[in-house]
Amino acid sequence: MCDGMKDWWKEATVYQIYPRSFADTNGDGIGDIRGIISRLDYIKRLGADVIWLCPVYKSPDVDNGYDVSDYRSIDKKFGSMADFDTLLREVHKRKMRLIMDAVFNHTSDRHGWFIESRKSMDNKYRDYYFWRSGKNGREPNNWISFFGGSAWEYDEGTGQYYFHLFSKEQPDLNWANADVRNEIHSVMRWWLDKGIDGFRFDTINHISKIPGFPDAKPLRGQKRIDWGRYYKNGPKVHFYLNEMNRKVLSKYDIMSVGETAATLEDIRATKLYVDRRRHELDMVFHENNEIRSEGGRPKASNPLDERYNTFKWRLGDLKRNFTAWQTALGKECWDSVYLGNHDYPRMVSHFGDDGKYRVESAKMLATMLFTLRGTPYIYQGDEIGMTNAGFGSIKDYADVWAINMYNEYTAGHKGGGGHALKILREISRDNARTPMQWNAGKNAGFGSGKPWIKINPNYGRINVESALRDRDSIFYYYKRLIKLRKEHGVMVYGRYRQILKGHPDIYAYTRSLNGDELLVLLNFTAKNTNYKLPRALENKEMEFFVGNYTKSKSRNVLRPYEAIVRSISQRRS
Fold first, then answer.
1. I need a labelling partner for 225 at 20 to 30 A (CA). Which of 21, 71, 176, 460 fits?
2. How far apart are CA 210 and CA 275, in angstroms?
3. What's residue 299's pLDDT?
């Protein structure tokens, strides 16, 4: 591996905004575009270069905006197109960039295309989606939806079923239809011509399905079904993306990132999306950066029971997964580095300690994000150490996935509500979607009206205002890391090499570039932890570079959740 070519999006830091939970200016309880505009100076102060905006398109909101009914309209709950134009102008005025979510695997069932599609079997738009007749009085096949239940919904109007990988209100688009692709390309050009700086493509590796929609069968010699093999990394996905790049993306100076579900076994397949010689995408989000540690999840005979079992991620899995991706991508590929977003629990609650060592562990995790090779992503609130919400009732949840899973589980397990809620408190997407905690005042400073979802009750002590007053806060540590990354190319382009591979509590690695070398040591435990460096490193001089404690007194001990980065050089004789 070498450093490869330089690009602005490799050197950038991305700040993700979940609009409905960021800042509300009109008191309706839902964050809006004007709220984002009012907080741009805060993001600039942090040092981020790119804002990733989750969907603000017109939507019925079955899946919080990921069910789009009009790709060229701003939903009125977020404001107007004039508000968006102002946002874009103000972002650029501050020398930042803006990328938008592109939700093209599916539309809302209220999108004009689908409304036309379901009118008749010979409608022009019928082939924009997947319509099939039933089989033996049941669905066309046995595929299941990510949100629970069958992936097929019966439509009485024409007596056929339509396909949906997500909720029944999110019918999948048929990318095999060239007219669909041309429509999508037109939408993309429309936004790019407005001046946005790129796209994050939602669930992009699902746009090509196995032809014929065969029934899913267990793997040979197993009871388990690998559902992904039927609709993940399908046979035409790279043709579609190369065409999209050739006709649209390559015409603009932008960044493109695709959301892909990928395991360690998928590394070779995932590299195809981001190999710059193939002209598809710049980077992807893959599950092993999310590392919810499937390897630590106990198996169960019922898939639903398996989803609802408690499980702990394991440091060995995290180290193995990150190392695999860091070393496999090579000079022609680029990675995204993140530990949380709008689809996952808060990273300090999942990977760190959101109690006694919340500050230390949040800083440790930030150190990891900014010292790995790839573009780092910050999800709103992580820079102040926001935590999981800990909701006590299913009535507190708004996420369609959480509600569906709760209802499915309790329907099959009498008295199982308590267990289901316990799991949701750990893994629900709503953990990351509670309103941004700006201050200790009413509604955490989010807005004057009752928020669309409950605020985390710890906002009195965890909020932006208090973070900005404390020069030793998590916020200022993030700011320092961002600044260091801009100043030191080794943090961006340096070669990665893991050390202390077998250590049960420490994740350690080096980054090196053109004579500059950094040693990164991360303690993932709440105890003092001993370590011994390899002999090759012991013979080198080291200086403190950055860390979440004051300069360490001992070179061979890490304090609870300590992160320390040292610059190293060959010891002079």
1. 176
2. 24
3. 41
pTM: 0.93
Contact call for residues 504 and 532 (beta carbons, < 8 A):
no
Q: Which fold has domain 112-163?
A: Oligo-1,6-glucosidase; domain 2 (3.90.400)
Q: Which amino acid belongs to residue 139?
A: E
- Asked whether residue 126 carries a pLDDT value surpassing 50, the answer given is yes
Find, among 157, 105, 149, the residue nearest to 131 by Cα.
157
Task: Using DSSP, state whether 131 is helix, strand or coil.
Answer: strand
> Which residues are identified as catalytic?
202, 259
The pairs formed by 459-463 with CB atoms below 8 angstroms and a separation of 24 or more are 462/384, 462/385, 462/386, 462/387, 462/437, 463/384, 463/437, 463/438, 463/439
The per-residue pLDDT for range 455-477, each reduced to its tens digit, is 999 999 999 999 999 999 999 99
Written as one letter, the residue type at 14 is V
Q: What is the distance of C-alpha 551 from the center of its chain?
A: 33
User: Residue 75, Cβ neighbours under 10 Å: how many?
Assistant: 23
pLDDT band at residue 310 using 50, 70 and 90 as cut-offs: low
Tens digit of each residue's pLDDT (9 = 90 or more) over 391-411? 989 999 998 888 988 888 888
Q: Nearest to residue 103, comparing CAs of 61, 136, 73, 68?
A: 68
> What is the CATH architecture of 496-570?
Sandwich (2.60)
The class level of CATH for 8-105+178-300+314-389+432-477 reads: alpha beta
- Could you tell me the pLDDT band of residue 297, with boundaries at 50, 70 and 90? very low
Could you give the CA distance from residue 164 to residue 408 in angstroms, rounded to a whole number? 18
